[in-house]
Design brief:
11 strands; 16 helices; Rna Polymerase Sigma Factor, Chain: A; Rossmann fold; alpha/beta; globular; binds NADP nicotinamide-adenine-dinucleotide phosphate
């Protein structure tokens, strides 16, 4: 431990496990962490199968452990690290990734695996009582009450990294920053949304948009799945559900406004009429650094905000006809039970099919709607096994609708 050299007496040195290390959030996290070697150690890095990228990260950060879900890729990484004379121990498979999430040598886990694949590793971290920095919103959307109960019973601390939820967290009073509990005095929370790349595209042209156009976000540089979710605004819908679980707010008290400049990251409106907002340059290193260092503040390498240069900040209501996925998310949240999980599964199948050019952009909402209507409503899953079963069942129905869409279009 090197704490005796630290400027803050109460600061505790943190040992970090980074799940989703080779992705966009992974890169931003490592950028912040390497600015503060006296505060953070990169103890473990995990990803899916991109072993070349993980090898490079191991060279740079020298973690004690690495893991890849894919066994063949893990074997290639082991060989590569031996060639580099690095001592990093490489684990593999789902068990390997989950082992790192619950590693006794680490206290902090940044959960940035994309999609439902992040559920089990993130749950492993919360059950092990870690300080969990949550980027992987799909894990919470899928797990819902089950996930929050695991946070409580595991004695974990949950800190939101999604920029909107991190903004709300920052606008809540210190004593009330216990995730999952509605803060007395809050009337509503308002999530801001950039509106994505198709905010002003003529509706008739949306049918023809390509994966490349959908992934070209005007403000944020992100992974492909979340980029498509931003274009459909399903991302904001998933965030509404995430906000419900994180802050204990009902759907009716969670609003969404379009704010193309992405400077105001969200608002909290109090009963007395006060509205608190968090502002900053659109750079994920800000919420990541805030969550990593909480309750302190550290340098994140982010360009300072120049409000005078910005001149205007604009806000508008999302057009319902343009963003049907947003309405589907509210519908799922209001329906309760397994509906959010079903919607998330359908969306993941549909987005993957769109990225693989099997269906068109507008088919994403169509598939999600069809699956939500077809899969029987059931109680919210009470075990992880039942959550995974519901997820698999919804994916099978979604795949059937994808096939029907793609054969209709001759894709
Ligand atoms: N990017 C943002 O600005 C942003 C903002 C807010 C929230 N988020 C959330 O953060 C999460 C990550 O987003 P991202 O943009 O960083 O995604 P990304 O760039 O696509 O990276 C995904 C990461 O997850 C790994 N991964 C994927 N499937 C996995 C599996 N089954 N097991 C283990 N690792 C797996 C990938 O490994 P490989 O490289 O080996 O495939 C990669 O490291 C998402 O839930 C997203 O919604 C992102």
């Amino acid at each position: 431990m090197t704490t005796k050299h630290l400027p803050f007496e109460h600061f505790s040195f943190k040992r970090l496990v980074l799940l989703g290390a080779t992705g966009s959030i992974g890169a931003s996290t490592l950028d912040v962490v390497t600015r503060h070697p006296e505060r953070f150690e990169v103890t473990a890095l995990a990803a899916h199968k991109n072993w070349e990228a993980l090898r490079e990260l191991c060279r740079r950060h020298r973690p004690r452990y690495a893991a890849l879900l894919d066994e063949t890729a893990a074997q290639a990484l082991r060989q590569g690290l031996r060639d580099d004379s690095l001592k990093t121990e490489v684990l593999s498979g789902a068990a390997g990734v989950q082992t790192l999430a619950a590693l006794p040598e680490a206290d902090t886990v940044l959960a940035a695996i994309t999609g439902a694949a992040g559920l089990l590793p993130t749950l492993a971290a919360v059950r092990a009582g870690k300080r969990v920095l949550l980027a992987n919103k799909e894990a919470l959307v899928m797990g819902g009450a089950l996930f929050m109960e695991a946070v409580r019973s595991g004695g974990a601390t949950l800190l939101p990294v999604d920029s909107e939820h991190n903004a709300i967290f920052q606008c809540l009073p210190g004593a009330a920053q216990q995730c999952g509990i509605r803060v007395p005095g809050v009337r509503k929370i308002v999530l801001t949304a950039s509106g994505g790349p198709f905010r002003e595209t003529p509706l008739a042209a949306l049918r023809e948009v390509t994966p490349e156009q959908a992934c070209a976000h005007p403000v944020w540089k992100m992974g492909r799945k979340i980029s498509v979710d931003s274009a459909t605004m399903m991302n904001k819908g998933l965030e509404v559900i995430e906000a419900h679980w994180l802050f204990g707010m009902p759907a009716a008290a969670i609003d969404v406004v379009i704010h193309p400049q992405s400077i105001v990251h969200s608002f909290v409106e109090y009963l007395d009429g006060s509205v608190l907002a968090q502002l900053g340059s659109p750079d994920m290193r800000t919420p990541i650094a805030q969550a990593l260092a909480f309750p302190e503040r550290i340098e994140a390498g982010v360009t300072a905000l120049d409000l005078v240069a910005l001149k205007t900040l604009t806000f508008s209501a999302p057009e319902r006809g343009r963003f049907p996925c947003l309405a589907l998310a509210y519908q799922a949240l209001n329906a309760g039970g397994n509906a959010a999980l079903v919607l998330n599964a359908a969306n993941e199948v549909a987005v993957e099919a769109f990225l693989n050019r099997r269906i068109g952009f507008l088919d994403i909402a169509y598939v999600c709607d069809a699956v939500l209507s077809e899969v029987p409503m059931a109680m919210a899953p009470v075990t992880v096994e039942s959550a995974i079963d519901f997820d698999a069942a919804a994916r099978r129905v979604a795949e059937r609708h994808v096939m029907a869409c793609s054969s209709r279009k001759g894709m």
